[in-house]
Amino acid sequence: MGAKIWLRRGLIQTKPIVSFYGIIVIIYSLHLVRSISLPLPKDSTMTNRVRVRFAPSPTGPLHMGGVRTALFNYLFAKQHGGDFILRIEDTDTQRYVPGAEEYIIESLRWCGIPPTEGVTENGQMAVEPSPQHPHAPYRQSQRKGLYHTYAQQLVSQGDAYYAFDSPESLESLRQEAEAKGQAFVYGPASRNALDNSLGLDAKETAKRLSQNSPWVIRFRIPENQNIIFHDLIRGEITVQSNTLDDKVLWKSADGLPTYHLANVVDDHLMEISHVIRGEEWLPSLPLHILLYRAFEWTNSQPLFAHLPLLLKPDGKGKLSKRDGDRLGFPVFPLEWKSPLGEISKGYREDGYIAQAFVNMLALMGWNPGTEQEIFSLEQLTHLFSLDRVVKSGARFNPEKAHWFNQQYLRTTDNAELAASFANLLTQASIPFDPQKLPAIVGLIKERATFVKDFLDLSDYFFTAPTRYDEKLVAKHWKEDIPQKIAAIQSFLAQIEPFTKESIEHPLADYIQTNEWSMGAVMNALRLCIVGAAKGPGMADIMSIIGKEETLRRIANTPHSQSAPAPPLPF
RNA sequence: GGCCAGUUCGUCUAACGGUUAGGACUCAAGAUUUUCAUUCUUGCAAUAGGGGUUCGAUUCCCCUACUGGCUACCA
Q1: Residue A278 CA to nucleotide B3 C1', Å?
Q2: Residue A566: per-residue pLDDT
Q3: Cβ density class A7-31: b for 16+ within 10 Å, e for less
Q4: CA-CA distance, A345 to A336, in Å (whole number)?
C-alpha cells in the first residue's frame, strides 16, 4: 500500500532516490520469492519524465468515456510537466472507420486537451520523427515492420509459438466445451494437443510456414505461476497463470500485430511512464506484464492505472451510443456522421460549453475531496491525483450535465454569449439590434441552461406579444385594470430619458401614491409588454425595447383603453 | 461457466477505526422578488446481507448476494 504510493512519488520526483529503490527491491524479493512480481521500480538511470499516452482505436467517434480517459491522461501529464501523446491504434483493419482519427483529434482540441506529441500543428499525425515528435510515426499501421521483429524475438526465445489451428476448429472446440458447461482455453492445459509449433521441430515448422498455411503467433503463458502486479488505483492484484490463455500476438488475417503486442512494444519504445486506460483492460494486464518480462523490459516498465467505467443512466451495463439516442443526450463530444449517413448528437452541437463538459467528465470517477465542484482546467491540473480516482463505475447523469452547463453559462461573458445568440437570431430570421444584445443576454442568462434557451426567454425583446397567457389574463386583468394601465401609459409617455433608472422608482412611486397594488398593476403591465409571466424587471424590459415600443404595446393590448374591460378575448 | 474488479441517499460522491454518516444533482416545501428564474432556508433520502477482528467497524478480514468488465486472428 505504502509502497504503491512511494513508487509513484519516486517516479515523479526528479532527484535520484537510488537507495530507496534498493530497499523496495529487497522488500519485493523477500515477499514474492516464487512469484513474478511486476512492476519493479524504475531503474534509477532512466529519465523520470512523465510520459502518458491516449491510444484510441479509430473504429468510430470518440465516446465520452474515451474523452475522460484522455482528460485524465492530459491532467496527469500537465501536472508533472510531462508529455501527453496521442497514438492511433489502427491494427484492426476490419473495423477501421475513415474520419475517426480526425474526429478524435478535433474532439481533444475542442475540449482544450490537445496532445503535445503525436500530432502536428495542422491536426495531422506526425509521420516523420522530429524533435517535437521523436517517436513518429504514431499510427500503428505505419509501424508494422517494427512489431514483426519483436514477435520473432519472442518465438526464437521460446516465449511465443506458431499456431496453425483454423478458426473453425477453434470454434468447434469452444462449442464442445460450452456444451459441457466449461470454457475452452487455448493455454497451458490444452496447447500441446493443438496444432502448433510446440510439438514440431524447427524443420517441420519452417515447412509448415512455407506451405502458405495460415498461421498466427501466440504468446506462451508460463505454467503454474502467481502473477502479482500493481494497479495505481486498485492496488495489488494476483492472477494464476493457468487461468490465462495463449493470446494471439500476430494475426494471419491482416498480417498485423494484435493490440497486446503493439501496445506493449510501443509503450516501451515511446518511453511511456504511466499507462492510464479504461478498466476493460484490467484482465489483459497480466498478459502485458508477462510480455514486458519476456522482453526483459521490466526495469523501464510503465506503471498502470485502470479507470472505472462510465455506466448507463438507467438499467444495466456500460454507457453506449444507443443510450444517448434512447434517452436524448449526447454520448459523443462532437456530432458524428457515420459513413452510412447516420448522425449522432454531440455535446458541442447540443450547446454545451467545452469547459462545462470537461468539468463534468473530470468529476466522474474522481473528486478532490473537497466540496468544490466547479473547476477550470488549470485548477484540475493542479488538483488531479490518481490516488483519488474512484474504483467503482459511475452512472452518467444527464441532469447533472445540464447543471454544469448552467453554471458555466452564467459566468460566460455577455459579449461572447451575445455573439452566439446573434447567430441563433439570424437563423431564426428575427431582427435584432446588436447593440442591445449583450444587455439582453445579461438579463436572461441566469434563467437559461443553454444559449438556445435564450430564444424562448427573450422573444418579447424582439417582437411584441401576439398571444396573452390566458391564466394570467384571468388572474391579473381585473375590471379596474384598464383604467390604471391607461394612466400608466400616460405616465410613461412623460418619462425622458427612458432608462431603467428613470423608470423604476418613479413608476413605483406613482403606483404607491395612487395607493394601487404594486403586484396587480405591474403584473398587468407585464401582460401588455411580455404577454407572459416571465422575464426580468419591467423597467429593464421597457428601457431596452424603448419608449415608443412600450407605449405601442400598451396601446395594442386588447381592451387596454376601454373601461371596464371584459376579460375577453385574450 | 471461468477469471478479475467493484458495492455509502434515486444519481455522482465525502468520511483513509470514534461524525447527529457530509456535500452536489433531482424532487418537495418555505422566504425574498412586480412575474418567471436566480438566491437563501428547510425537508425527503444511503453504509447489500451474514459472520468475524476490535472497547468501538461505512472503514480491516471471511462468506454470500448483486453489479460491472474480460473471456475474438476487436481494441
Answers
A1: 18
A2: 40
A3: bbebbbeeeebeebbeebeeebeee
A4: 7
d(C-alpha A366, C-alpha A384), whole Å: 8
SS3 call for A557: coil
| A147 touches A262 (CB < 8 A) | yes
pLDDT tens digits for range A517-530: 999 999 999 999 99
A372 to A57, A268, A375, A383, A412: CA distances (angstroms): 34, 38, 8, 11, 19
Q: Which is it for strands A226-231 and A394-395: parallel, antiparallel or unpaired?
A: unpaired
DSSP notation for A150-174: HHHHHHHHTSEEEE---HHHHHHHH
Contact A21, A45 (CB under 8 A): no
Helix runs in A315-397, H state only = 321-327, 354-362, 377-383
- Strand A310-311 versus strand A160-163 pairing type: unpaired
- Residues of A (107-136) placing their beta carbon closer than 7 angstroms to any atom of strand B are none
Query: What ipTM was reported for this prediction?
Result: 0.96
Mean pLDDT within A380-403: 97
Q: How are the residues of chain A apportioned to helix, strand and coil, as percentages rounded to the nearest 5? A: 50, 10, 40
- Find all residues with CB under 8 Å of A252, minimum gap 6, and list them: A214, A215, A216
Amino acid at A59: T
Whether A403 CB is under 7 Å from strand B: yes
Active site residues of A: 321
Q: Is the CB of A314 under 7 A from strand B?
A: no
Is residue A478 very low, low, confident or very high in pLDDT (cuts 50, 70, 90)? confident
pLDDT band for A559, please (50, 70, 90 cuts).
low
pTM, two decimals, is: 0.89
Task: Name the least confident of A54-58, A147-151, A327-331, A469-473.
Answer: A469-473
Protein-to-nucleotide distance from the CA of A373 to the C1' of B64, whole angstroms? 37
Q: Which helix (H) or strand (E) holds A249?
A: strand A248-250
d(C-alpha A387, C-alpha A171), whole Å = 42
> Mind listing the pLDDT tens digit for each residue in A321-373?
999 999 999 999 999 999 999 999 999 999 999 999 999 999 999 999 999 99
In the predicted structure, residue A12 carries a pLDDT above the cut 50: no
Does the pLDDT of residue A15 top 50, yes or no?
no
Asked if A281 CB < 7 A from strand B, the reply is yes
Q: C-alpha cell of A412?
A: 460566460
Please report, rounded to a whole number, the percentage of residues in chain A having pLDDT higher than 70: 90
Which residue segments constitute the domains of chain A, with CATH numbers given?
1-164+214-408 (3.40.50.620), 412-455 (1.10.8), 470-556 (1.10.10.350)
Q: Determine the nucleotide nearest to A140 by Cα–C1' distance.
A: B75
Given a cut of 60, whether residue A47 has pLDDT beyond it is: no
* CB of A522 within 7 Å of some strand B atom: yes
Instruction: For A64-86, give one letter per residue: b (16+ CB within 10 A) or e.
Output: bbbbbbbbbbbbbbbbbebbbbb
Chain B: positions less than 7 Å from a protein CB are 1-8, 10-15, 22-26, 33-38, 67-75
